Amino acid sequence: MVSTTSRPAPRRKYDNSRRRADAQARRRRIIHAATAIFVEQGFAATSIDQIAAAADVSSPTVYATFGSKAGVLTRAIDVAVVGDYEDIPLVDRLLSVIDESGTQTPRQFAAGAQFVRTLNERVAPLMRVMEQAASADPALQELRTRAVGAIRADCAVAVEKFWRTALRPGLSGAQAADAMATMVSPYVYSMLTVDMGWSPDRYQRWLAHALPHLLLRPQLLGEQATAGTG
To answer: Are residues 179 and 228 in contact, defined by beta-carbon separation less than 8 angstroms?
Structure first.
């Protein structure tokens, strides 16, 4: 006998992938718009309303997504540092680039210099915006402190992995990390390329040449070291 009792239709599983994709697209539009405006106008002269209009979203959407204007700048810097939205730490990217360059020290520093030059081309303009506004905004002061710490920590990892046993006599790993962090910092890149008129190519050559000469035992440099800063 066939039952005539009706059974409830199975519920369709809710798929929110489209909503997540739309939210992600909005976040990326906001970051793209904010980056351009911050670099052009500076932090103080930029408003959430301007960012929202350029990204074709509402101002409340920007606040809901990032919390504040400092939050927008923080996320814009995070994206600029790695160059994409992939969840791969910067230090892993740096180590991979150096590792793939081979075992010759000059090649390692040349690869590292190219990586740092490309990174600083993206992030240095935003870091300059942050530096100029940090004294007046506690959130940006905290961001600056974290950024300096992150650069130093990444350099310490690279020194330990590739050059710990090759450092100059009397130079500790911590001192080497401090020196490297100073030279690769977006601040130094901006000072040389913006304030002193160096080209990015010249900066890259200088970094590839100067870092091993500063950090490593002279007998390890050889004649293959990257030449010149001119």
So the answer is: no
Beta-carbon neighbour count of residue 165 at 10 Å? 6
Question: Residue 230: pLDDT above 70?
Answer: no
pTM for the whole thing?
Answer: 0.83
Can you tell me the distance from the alpha carbon of 203 to that of 98, in angstroms, rounded to the nearest whole number? Answer: 18
**CATH number of residue 145's parent domain:** 1.10.357
CA torsion 175→151→101→205, rounded to 10°?
Answer: -80
Which domain covers residue 74, as residue numbers?
18-83
pLDDT of the residue at 173:
96
56, 142 contact by CB (below 8 A): no
The pLDDT tens digits for 30-79 are 999 999 999 999 999 999 999 999 999 999 999 999 999 999 999 999 99
Pair of tokens at residue 93: 């990217």
Same domain, 96 and 29: no
Residues 128, 213 share a domain: yes
* Residue 20 burial class via C-beta count within 10 angstroms: exposed 0-12, middle 13-18, buried 19 and up: exposed
Statement to judge: residues 22 and 62 lie in one domain: yes
